[in-house]
Amino acid sequence: MSTAASPEPLPSPPGGPRCLGGALPPGDPQLLRGRSAAAGLRQDFSMMEQKKRVTMILQSPV
Questions:
Q1: pLDDT of residue 15
Q2: Which of 21, 35, 49, 53 is the most exposed place for a label (fewest CB within 10 A)?
Q3: What's the CA gap between 52 and 42, in Å, rounded?
Q4: What span, in angstroms and rounded, lies between the C-alpha atoms of 25 and 11?
Q5: What is the C-alpha to C-alpha distance for residues 10 and 37, in angstroms, rounded to an integer?
Q6: Helix (H, G, I), strand (E, B), or coil: what is residue 55?
Q7: Residues 12-41: pLDDT tens digits?
Q8: How far is 19 from 14, CA to CA, in rounded Å?
Q9: Are 35 and 42 in contact (CB under 8 A)?
Q10: Is 16 left (phi over 0), alpha (psi -120 to 50) or beta?
């Protein structure tokens, strides 16, 4: 369990979310790239948190 405060969500831009001219079809390469990037970022943040916990444990007094 982490005692660090979780980051606050970013506020929505003025005027609401931007629309790129309609919904993208499910197999659209742009949509797939966006989903892949989001998953990669989540994985990176998870790994960073894991490294922080391991570092804290290794540096803790015995």
A1: 53
A2: 21
A3: 15
A4: 27
A5: 18
A6: helix
A7: 555 545 545 556 677 788 877 888 888 889
A8: 13
A9: no
A10: left
Kindly give, in sequence order, each residue whose CB lies less than 8 Å from that of residue 31, ignoring residues fewer than 6 positions away: 24, 25
Length of the chain: 62
Q: What are phi and psi of 48, to 5 degrees?
A: -65, -40
* Domain-wise residue ranges, the chain: 29-62
Q: Give the integer Cα–Cα distance in Å for 38 and 13.
A: 19
User: Which is nearest to 23 in space by CA: 13, 15, 34?
Assistant: 34
In this structure, the number of other CB atoms found within 10 A of the CB of residue 24 comes to 13
- pLDDT tens across 35-55, in order? 888 888 999 999 999 999 999
* Cα 1 from Cα 45, distance rounded (Å): 15
